[in-house]
Amino acid sequence: MDSITQAVLGAAVGEWLLGKKLGNRALAWGAAFGTLPDLDVVFSPFLDTAAKLWWHRGPSHSLLLMIAAAWFLSPWLAKFWRKEKISRARAGWFVFAAWSTHVLIDCFTVYGTLVFWPFSDVRIGFNHLFIVDPLFTLPMLIALVRLAFLRTKKQLPQRRRVNAWGLGIASAYALLSIAMKFVASSGFDADLDRRDAKVIRRMEAPTPFNILLWRSVADCGDSLWIGYRTVFESKNTPVRWTVYPKDAHVVENSGAAREVKALRWFSNDWWIARDHVKGAWIADMRFGEIRNWGARKDMVDNCPLFAWDYRPDETHDKLRQAGQARINPSETFKRLGLRIIGQRDAWDANPRLIGATGQLPETLAVEE
Question: Nearest to residue 33, comparing CAs of 59, 12, 2?
Answer without folding.
Answer: 12
